[in-house]
Every structure is written in structure tokens, then in C-alpha cells.
Amino acid sequence: QVQLVESGGGLVQAGGSLRLSCAASGSIASTMAWYRQAPGKQRELVAAITRTGSTNYADSVKGRFTISRDTAKNTVYLQMNSLKPEDTAVYYCNVDRILMGYRWYTDCWGQGTQVTVSS
């Protein structure tokens, strides 16, 4: 079974920074992404990165957040700077497709990590 282990969430003041990490078990991962879900809102895409390094961001985080990955380690990172209270949410790691053994797993999710930004 594929596991995505997230870390790095926490409480930070507005204007501060946090770095999230997500390590995926398995050997080959395709697109990796971060989503977030605030209370009472739908889960939304924050940022995504393909295996070749192409990225895309939600408009609300452009210029503040940076997604990166270590392809060899199947690990994705989210550097979050200039955090705002509206960034408060549970952040989830997602992998589109990942090979584990001889089987491809699709749409895999982490357990989520809480990010709270105080004003």
C-alpha cells in the first residue's frame, strides 16, 4: 500500500514561513501536488509539479509559495513565505500515479497537516 507521509505544518504568525514535506513510498511518482482545505470550504489545489519539473500554482499563492521535488526520493516540498491568515487550512499531499512493486497506484493522498496562520 502506498504511503504519503507529510510533515512541517504548525502555527506561525502572519508574514512568517513554513516548509512542508511529503515523502511517498514507491519507486516512480508522476505529478505531485499540494492541496488545502479550510473549514467550510472545498479542497483546492495549491501547487503541482510534474516529474520533469513543470509547475503550476493557485493564483492566491503565486509569488509566495514554491513547490519543488526530489524525484529520486519521491519527496515533494512546499516552501510557504509571507503567510497570511487566509492560508490557514489542512494541507494535503497528492500523487497522481506512483509505482510500487509491479503495480501502479493512482490518486494517492496523505493524511494532511495543519497550517495555522495567526494575525
Walk me through what this model shows.
The protein is mainly beta. The protein is built from no helices and twelve strands. Strands 2, 4, 5, 6, 7, 10, 11 and 12 form an eight-stranded mixed sheet that branches. The relative contact order is 0.33.
Secondary-structure map with pairings?
Elements: E1 4-7, E2 10-13, E3 18-24, E4 28-29, E5 32-37, E6 44-49, E7 55-57, E8 65-70, E9 75-80, E10 89-100, E11 103-109, E12 113-118
Parallel strand pairs: 2-12
Antiparallel strand pairs: 1-3, 3-9, 4-10, 5-6, 5-10, 6-7, 8-9, 10-11, 10-12
Q: How does the major sheet shape up?
A: 8 strands, mixed
Average predicted local confidence, pLDDT: 95
Globally, the shape reads elongated
Q: Which ranges are low-confidence, i.e. pLDDT below 50, for 5 or more consecutive residues?
A: none
Helix content: under 10%
The sequence of SSEs as H and E is EEEEEEEEEEEE
Radius of gyration (CA) equals 14 Å
Number of strands: 12
Count of helical stretches: 0
Structural class: mainly beta
* Oligomeric state of this protein: single chain
Measured between the Cα atoms of the first and last residue, the distance is: 40 Å
Strand portion, in percent? over 45%
